[in-house]
Amino acid sequence: QVQLVESGGGLVQAGGSLRLSCAASVSTFTINRVGWYRQAPGKQRELVAAITSGGSTNYADSVKGRFIISRDNAKNTVYLQMNSLKPEDTAVYHCNAFGYTIVAGRSNWDDYWGQGTQVTVSS
Question: Hey, what's the torsion of the CAs at 118, 93, 19, 84, to 10 degrees?
Answer without folding.
Answer: -90
